[in-house]
UniProtKB/TrEMBL annotation:
EC number: 3.1.3.71
PANTHER family tied to this protein: 2-PHOSPHOSULFOLACTATE PHOSPHATASE-RELATED
Protein family per UniProt: Belongs to the ComB family.
Catalysed reactions, as listed in the record: (2R)-O-phospho-3-sulfolactate + H2O = (2R)-3-sulfolactate + phosphate
Enzyme class: hydrolase
Name the UniProt record assigns to this protein: Probable 2-phosphosulfolactate phosphatase
Keyword Cell division included in the entry's annotation: no
Organism of origin: Algoriphagus limi
Gene3D superfamilies, per the entry: ComB-like
Xref: Pfam families: 2-ph_phosp
């Protein structure tokens, strides 16, 4: 059996050994859900940035630029961090540069992993199939919120732990706790996560459609994987 463990914040990732593992970076609200929406709608690669100005400079290289701070689209950027906005038109063959508050930081702190996957509910089953085919230990890296634990990323970790229980053991306390929570609340994901602080923040901004998209299972049969520092789609 392979092992599965959970890291609840990028602030804690230095305590984990990533070598040889598949790290699944997850930021349900909304960065990793938005990346999957973008890849499903034609974006061929996503380069992520911690700071706004490096991201902005990618426009000169022909990239679309997407940026969010405090949940709002950055002035002058083509797009923000809304998955639903990426569904409005087809971005065939375009490249995207992206910076967000939590998700892009979690990716940059996962670089020593053997493989980095982008975790989201809309491509949940594809990620499961991909992971099962690799036979490696898994670490779920929750982006959290500004260094803190959050419910939506952790519950995704629980869903993954549950789905992988035939091949990956969840001896890790965090994985065990989240699997138990998912077993209790997973049947009413949308209702349960409407209580999450970030869902409330997004509701205040009137973006219920984003919340709904981020919590919908299996819309796409692709995996988001970081290859040569770019997130790319793999049909799976
Ligand atoms: O855009 C989002 O949903 C959040 C914004 S914030 O952290 O609530 O300010 O960013 P993300 O990186 O997707 O968590
Ligand atoms: Mg988030």
């Amino acid at each position: 059996m392979n092992q599965l463990e959970v890291c609840f914040s990028p602030e804690l990732i230095h305590l984990h050994d990533l070598e040889g593992k598949i790290v699944v970076v997850v930021d349900i609200f909304r960065a990793t859900s938005t990346m999957i929406a973008a890849l499903a709608n034609g974006i061929e690669e996503i380069q992520t940035f911690a700071d706004l100005e490096s991201c902005r400079s990618m426009r000169e290289k022909g990239y679309l630029i997407a940026g969010e701070r405090n949940g709002k689209t950055v002035e002058g950027f083509d797009l923000g961090n809304s998955p639903v906005a990426f569904l409005e038109e087809y971005y065939g063959g375009k490249k995207l540069a992206m910076t967000t508050t939590n998700g892009t930081l979690a990716i940059s702190k996962s670089q020593s992993a053997d493989e980095i996957l982008i975790g989201a509910f809309p491509n949940f089953s594809s990620s499961i199939r991909y992971i099962q085919a690799q036979q490696k230990d898994v670490l779920i890296h929750c982006a959290g919120w500004k260094g803190r634990f959050n419910l939506e990323d952790s519950l995704y970790a629980g869903a993954l732990a549950k789905a992988l229980e035939g091949t990956h053991s969840s001896d890790d306390d965090g994985a065990l706790a989240m699997k138990t929570l998912f077993e209790k609340e997973g049947h009413q994901l949308k209702q349960y996560l409407s209580k999450a602080s970030h869902a409330k923040r997004l509701q205040n901004q009137g973006i219920e459609k984003d919340i709904d998209f981020c919590l919908t299972l299996d819309l796409y049969y692709l995996v988001g994987k970081v290859v040569n520092d770019r997130v790319r789609p793999i049909s799976f």
